[in-house]
Write a structure and sequence with these properties.
InterPro entries: NTF2-like_dom_sf, SnoaL-like. About 30% of the residues lie in helices and about 45% in strands. It is an alpha+beta fold and about 170 residues long. The chain has a single domain, classed as Nuclear Transport Factor 2, Chain: A (Roll), CATH 3.10.450. A hairpin with a 2-residue loop joins strand 5 and strand 6. The chain is elongated, with a radius of gyration of 17 Å.
Amino acid sequence: MTYQRLTADDLIDRAEIVDTVHRYASGIDRCDWTMYRSIFADEVLFDFSSWSGAPAAPMAADDWVARVGGTLSLFDSTQHLLSNHRITLDGDAAQCVTYMIALHHLVTGDVREMHAIGGFYTNRLKLTDEGWRIVACTLTVTWEMGDRGLFQRAADRGRRRPAGKA
């Protein structure tokens, strides 16, 4: 591997890509679905097969945001932590691999429950007139803690956090 010095433009692109990826977590955790939608191209290839078992498939970003919002806003709180960004730039395209931990909290009376997953996202991005946008998002789950049934209990309870409330 040959060392290649980054240019000032490369550093700006990397900072903008990290900001885009961080808006993924912030949008979810704040239930700010406008922010969350802002990071995606209009159509995105989503591969969450390591979580759901469903094959990768292209989806309209609006439909994806509605699905995620409809699921994760049912929890009392979530916290998505992202770190260790590894970015590869290729002109107006990029790849960003990011470690992740996602915590999902549900409170029922005196019972506090949490489900956690860890792993990494591999995002492919394109530079558009509006900035960097995710065109493909793959979640690779490497560990899980807690009861996955917490998602169903949240859905059964049907509580929704208002937009902007964590």
